[in-house]
C-alpha cells in the first residue's frame, strides 16, 4: 500500500518545493517507485526536475478540471524510479473553476485511487495557501510533512495549519496524520536557529524530524539548473541531509548523513560542481 505525503505549510519560503523534490529523489534512489505531484501553480517542482512547464501538454489542471486520468499525465524523470505529475500557471484556474463543483475536495484523491498502488510513495508539493488545491492534497494524503524555516515568526500560522489538518481528519480524511515537522534553512552560527529548533521541538515534541536542513547555496542553485541536489552536487551537505531525511521517512535512519552512488536513468549533463 502506497504512502501519500503532502508537503504543506501555508507560509511561503519554507522549503516545501526543495523538500518535495529532494525527498522524492532520495526515496527513489533507495529503490522505491515514487510519484511527485506538483500542486503549486508556480510549477517549481516541475521546472526543478528539468521539465519545461510551459510546454507540457497535460498537467494536474487537466486531472482536476477535465477528469483526465492520472496515468495519462504522469511523466518519467531523469531519475530512475521517479515520476511526475506536472503543473504550470494553468492550475490557478482550478481554484476558481472548482468553487461551484460538487465534491471538489476529493478530485485529486479519486484520480490517485486508480494509480497509487503502482507507487511506493506519492509526494505532493502543496501551494503556499490553505485553498482548494491544498485541501485536495490533504484529503488525498495519508500524512503531512510540515517544513518550518529557522527564522523569525517560524511558528506563525502553524496553529491554523494544525487546526486545518485536524478538521480534515475529523470530517474528510480520518487516516491523515502528521508525518513530521522538518526544520529548514538552519544557520547554526546564529542564536535564532537554536531558539527556533527548541521552540519547534517544545511545540511538536517527538513529531520533529532529527534531520535539520541547513541553509545552503547548493540547494538554492540546483533548481536553476533543473536538477535535484543529488544531480547537482551529491557530495554537498544539503544532499547528505536530504538523504538522511529519506532514511528517517523510511524508518531506516535517524538523521545521520548518508551517501548514495546510484546512477540516474539518463545522462543529465550535470555541470562541474564547486566545493560546497
From TrEMBL:
A Pfam family that the UniProt record links to this protein: AAA_31
Domain AAA residues, every copy: 2-178
Biased composition (Polar residues): 267-276
InterPro entries (UniProt xref): AAA_dom, DNA_Partitioning_ATPase, P-loop_NTPase
Stretches assigned to coiled coil: none
Annotated spans, Disordered: 254-276
Signal peptide (residue range): none
PANTHER family (UniProt xref): P-LOOP CONTAINING NUCLEOSIDE TRIPHOSPHATE HYDROLASE (PTHR13696), PARA FAMILY PROTEIN CT_582 (PTHR13696:SF52)
UniProt protein name: Sporulation initiation inhibitor Soj
Source organism: Velamenicoccus archaeovorus
Taxonomic lineage of the native organism: Bacteria, Pseudomonadati, Candidatus Omnitrophota, Candidatus Velamenicoccus
Amino acid at each position: 500500500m502506497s504512502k501519500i505525503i503532502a508537503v504543506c505549510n501555508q507560509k511561503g519560503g519554507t522549503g516545501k518545493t526543495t523538500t518535495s523534490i529532494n525527498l522524492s529523489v532520495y526515496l527513489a534512489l533507495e529503490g522505491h517507485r515514487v510519484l511527485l505531484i506538483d500542486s503549486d501553480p508556480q510549477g517549481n517542482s516541475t521546472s526543478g526536475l528539468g521539465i519545461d512547464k510551459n510546454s507540457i501538454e497535460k498537467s494536474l489542471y487537466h486531472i482536476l478540471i477535465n477528469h483526465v486520468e492520472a496515468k495519462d499525465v504522469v511523466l518519467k524523470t531523469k531519475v530512475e524510479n521517479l515520476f511526475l505529475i506536472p503543473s504550470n500557471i494553468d492550475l490557478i484556474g482550478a481554484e476558481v473553476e472548482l468553487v461551484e463543483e460538487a465534491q471538489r475536495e476529493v478530485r485529486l484523491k479519486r484520480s490517485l485511487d486508480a494509480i497509487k498502488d503502482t507507487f511506493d510513495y506519492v509526494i505532493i508539493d502543496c501551494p503556499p495557501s490553505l485553498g482548494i488545491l491544498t485541501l485536495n492534497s490533504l484529503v488525498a494524503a495519508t500524512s503531512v510533512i510540515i517544513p518550518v524555516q529557522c527564522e523569525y515568526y517560524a511558528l506563525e500560522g502553524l496553529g491554523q495549519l494544525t487546526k486545518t489538518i485536524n478538521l480534515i481528519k475529523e470530517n474528510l480524511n480520518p487516516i491523515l496524520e502528521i508525518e513530521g515537522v522538518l526544520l529548514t534553512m538552519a544557520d547554526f552560527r546564529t542564536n535564532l536557529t537554536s531558539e527556533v529548533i527548541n521552540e519547534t521541538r517544545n511545540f511538536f515534541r517527538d513529531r520533529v524530524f532529527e534531520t535539520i536542513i541547513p541553509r545552503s547555496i547548493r540547494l538554492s542553485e540546483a533548481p536553476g539548473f533543473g536538477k535535484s541536489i543529488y544531480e547537482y552536487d551529491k557530495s554537498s551537505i544539503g544532499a547528505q541531509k536530504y538523504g538522511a531525511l529519506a532514511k528517517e521517512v523510511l524508518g531506516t535512519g535517524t538523521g545521520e548523513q548518508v551517501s548514495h552512488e546510484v546512477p540516474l536513468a539518463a545522462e543529465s549533463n550535470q555541470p562541474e560542481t564547486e566545493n560546497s
